[in-house]
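Researcher: Structure prediction, please.
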Amino acid sequence: MKAWLLLGVCAAPFFAGCGGDASGAPSASAVTDAATPSSAEPGEQAAASPLTVALEAKDKLVLSSVGGGIVVLDESGKHIAHAKDGADLEARAMPTGLPKDLSRIQYVGGRLPESLWLSVALEPEAKKKTGKTPFYRATSKLKEISEDWQPLVVPWSKKRTLAISTSSGRLKIKQIEPFTKTSPEDQPARYVPDVECGKSLKLAEATSLPSGEVVSVGRCSMGSDKKASYVLVRWPVAATPAAAPADTAAAAPKATPTASAEVVEATAPAAGEPADAKEEDEKKGAPMTLLTLGTDKLRHRALAVRSENEIYAAVGADAAGATNVVVVEKDKVSPVTLPTLDSPILDMAVTASGELWLVTANKAYRRPAQGTWAEVAPPAKTQLERVEAAGDTIWIAGQKGSGNAAKGVLLKLGAAKPIEWK
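Model: Predicted structure follows.
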């Protein structure tokens, strides 16, 4: 899903904590050797690695965090499995109805067990460089919601699910599960307080907190000088008795979007509607706050949230540049001291107990809420790509081997019951 090469030089003012700062390196006793030989097969734990191969697949894997756990698929759409918080991986039936011109599965989001949403890429039509990206609701059959849409799917409070999109040039937010024609009062507002940012905002990743607050990161041009900025976007929940209660990992609602859900990408206001009426409508709901994290042309790498007062963002200056991590504590932005990294950060995750994980192509690193970084070596010949947490269980997707012999692998922290997809 993401691929970068070697570390470069720090670029942005807030991102001074480059990997390689010796003060953040783990002690020798905490570091495992990624070069330790291993011949681990599915279900076996590699020597010197606490990570177990839980799944091997013929194709590359797509791993996503969802409400109540994680979901993993192969890119070809033949297999799907999930793991609830703290549980082993369970195979499930792949929904029918994938298009014949499927190029690959891109993304799955939503909530376990049955509120899942799927984004796929199709093969390009003649004389076109890219294909369409249909968006589906995934039950036993796929129900097409849009023929070309890639929203961020965010499990929200009260067992609800949001779709957030900036792909059309303006911010769109819709509750898609359970479907409702009218926006709930606590839904994030679509109004962007900076006019220029509102015209150019492109969100890269989003998540929510148990309180109902939604957090996202992305890029936009800020202010009258249209300065390119990497921004943190938040929709805080008002501290009132009516605030949304903590979310749970219980069974998802059974409601199914009606045909009206096929217009989740809202169109422009009706002709003749005054501009102030449009603005007033966009302001309905929880107001947005914007915080600039960097003003260079930074590439988003990952977002991880410990709490409303501890939000982590990882960025790189370019495809081959240094990766830096900042933490936002209330409105204070500080660089995070990283261990010595062998290559750029590809992804981050936070467990239920607050342990922060990050992965590069060759190694993983973990840091408890009150502790220092420790290196975690994967089984030999395994390249890492993505990390997700289900409760306190860590799952890492990657590849084993190279070339035509490469296999998709899913690693689990601790023992696992192996699955093999052919």
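Model: Confidence is low (pLDDT under 50) at residues 1-41, 240-274.
Researcher: Thanks, that helps.
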